Amino acid sequence: MKQERDYRAQLEQLSLEDKATLLTAANFWNTARVPGVNEILLSDGPSGIRKQTEGGDALGLTGSVETIAFPCLALIASTFDKDLLRKYGEYLGQIAKAEKVNVLLGPGMNIKRSPLAGRNFEYFSEDPFLTAELAIQYIKGVESQGIGTSPKHFAANNRENERFTSSSNIQPRSLHEIYLSAFKRVVEEAQPATIMNSYNKVNHVLVAENNYLLTDLLRNQWNFDGVVVSDWGAVKDRVASVRAGLDLEMPGQPDYSIPQVVEAVRSGKLDEALVDRSVLRLLKLIDRYTLEGEMPNYNKDNYHEFARSIAAQSIVLLQNEDKILPLKDNSSKAVIGAFAKHPRYQAGGLSKVNAYKVVTPFDALEAVYGDFAYADGYEFENLDANQKLIDEAVEAAKGKDEVILFAGFPENIESEGFDKTSIDLPDNQITLIQSVAEVNPNVVVVLQNGSAVATPWRNKVNGLVETYLAGEAVGEATVDVLSGKVNPSGKLAETFPERIQDTPSYLTFNRSTEEENYMEGIFVGYRYYATKDMSVAFPFGHGLSYTDFEYTDSNVKVDNDKDQIQIDVTVKNIGEVQGAEVVQIYLQNRASNIEMAAKELKSFERVELEAGESKTVKLVIPFERLKWFNPQTSLWQIDNGDYTVHVGSSVNDIHSQHDFEITSIDEPPIQLSLDSSLKDIIDLQDTLSHEIDEFGFDQMIYKMTSEPNLRVLAEPAPIRMLVMFGLKLSDLVKFVEKCNVRLKTGE
């Protein structure tokens, strides 16, 4: 790889027109070629390689190479398995290399703020810590094969409706803690080749032109040294986006963008140094990720088997009453639901790949169990109940030992480009489930969907299995779990609420075409339900097994020398079959004087155990993970004080909890602002006595502190409110400045 001086020498050989050419792609997928600079190819992911062969489009309308359709990230996240995500990334990178793709556009990292969001299937979780832990390994895996990645969509792209124009309006604390923190960690720990900016605005500034996000934060604070690439069509003003730090415009608009940039530089509207800045980044990207020589082939059958394995490990067993699962070998069976023969195994739009070999659940069940009764039960296009189809399904289910009923969201109600209006299954499927359960309670519902589903009918059936969009091996993976060949070990990476009205963003989600107001703050997903102590259908982290696990001997040790907390817990498989459990560690900050979630995931570990086997799992929480973003100082800080660790197998299924105290953190110097309360001044009156006397506040403070009724009224008021008592704002500004000098230096 070249040195910095080599890239600068290469830059000096380029004309202004050449440099402007490099800043916009040549076409839909390829970067531009200029003398001395190669082109590279970017291709969609993140759950397979969508390399188009007949021109480019964002809807999957033209042909693409045949490849492996892996499970969606919403399903894979349910493994809570960092090693598996690394291996998955390696497989994706190997396929990309074989197909001569230089940069894979993934992973999707947006937070699942609402289960209505149309693209949730493409994202990991409602939790930023889990998102970061898994995305880091995905990125490292892909990049280990010499293929670049593009974590997306930066930032706060949490709905599909009006995604090109709407503004995500978010307070600083929740912006940093919930919506930016996973991106921060992948930049710092995985160093992806590129980052893709989102379409939307953040706090009324288009992300493609947002200097704070693309330069101040991404570059100056997080030290990102890769390329910022636009989402396809996200650039409105190429000059403004260059100025903000967006390096590569996709797809190419050479007839428009090149002359616009050249004219702006020549007229003095755009500093050529900013153009050079982006070109240098692109030269490094192209050099680092250019593929040379013959690319290795890959055995599609082997990769299909890996897709099957990863899907089976990810599937979540939500409910298993009367141990209806695994299915019995010699029992009579009925298979119901059109999804059994026509599974929804992948998303449409940007995620849709030309699958190598799709095995349906119907075919996989038939291969294992032979003949069984079957009925469609419903239609995909007409969502109203079809009584003829329901009657056929009811007849098929009567008297059977086991009924496997496939249900889910058809693509016409869940896809990229629009948001759902409900999390209920279509009416025809709900009616089908209820009708079948009336004549036979031995029903297992198998879900195919991209995000959380309401399940008010679940008490009428015995089994419930979540497969999300399980990839081309959907049938084999599903039957592996249903049959017991694979013991389910997936855990929900998102909460399944009882109803959409219970969700924290219900009152604001999609209420305006122009903006989205994130009024719930940091209380997203399980943070909200746990803090409110609110019941849900299935909590974050939930997932059953065909065996049982026992947690014992948990303890917590605070190591101030290493700035970390160590948690040890012994987990034993007390059942009769091998299984895997995910130990989850949640933390509650009881030290802070501002609102905190009752539980936040801070560590997890997947452990595999033979029947009767036990292992001691050791988990570590670095103090760094205890930080929260202080909007007053714009800094991340840790509090000294009391905390609680919860050791569980879901956010609700807690096996032990431990209180501990941190005392070793150097407290940041207190800094005041005009919005600081008068109580802050009263509490600091001994330290700030000189400034209080100098500005004549001593009598006012004495009066406030000596009269209880007045004190109750005055203490919450901000310092700036003292103008109501005749004080000048300019004097208050000087007072605050002098106080801050005293607080910082002691002088």
UniProtKB/TrEMBL annotation:
One of its GO terms (molecular function) is beta-glucosidase activity. It holds the Pfam family Glyco_hydro_3. GO terms for biological process: carbohydrate metabolic process. Gene3D superfamilies: Glycoside hydrolase family 3 C-terminal domain (3.40.50.1700), Glycoside hydrolase, family 3, N-terminal domain (3.20.20.300), Immunoglobulins (2.60.40.10). It comes from the Bacteria. Residues 581-651 form the Fibronectin type III-like domain. Keywords: Carbohydrate metabolism, Glycosidase, Hydrolase. InterPro entries: Cellulose_deg_GH3, Fn3-like, GH, Glyco_hydro_3_AS, Glyco_hydro_3_C, Glyco_hydro_3_C_sf, Glyco_hydro_3_N, Glyco_hydro_3_N_sf. SUPFAM superfamilies: (Trans)glycosidases, Beta-D-glucan exohydrolase, C-terminal domain. Belongs to the glycosyl hydrolase 3 family. This is Glycosyl hydrolase family 3. It comes from Staphylococcus carnosus. The lineage of its organism: Bacteria, Bacillati, Bacillota, Bacilli, Bacillales.
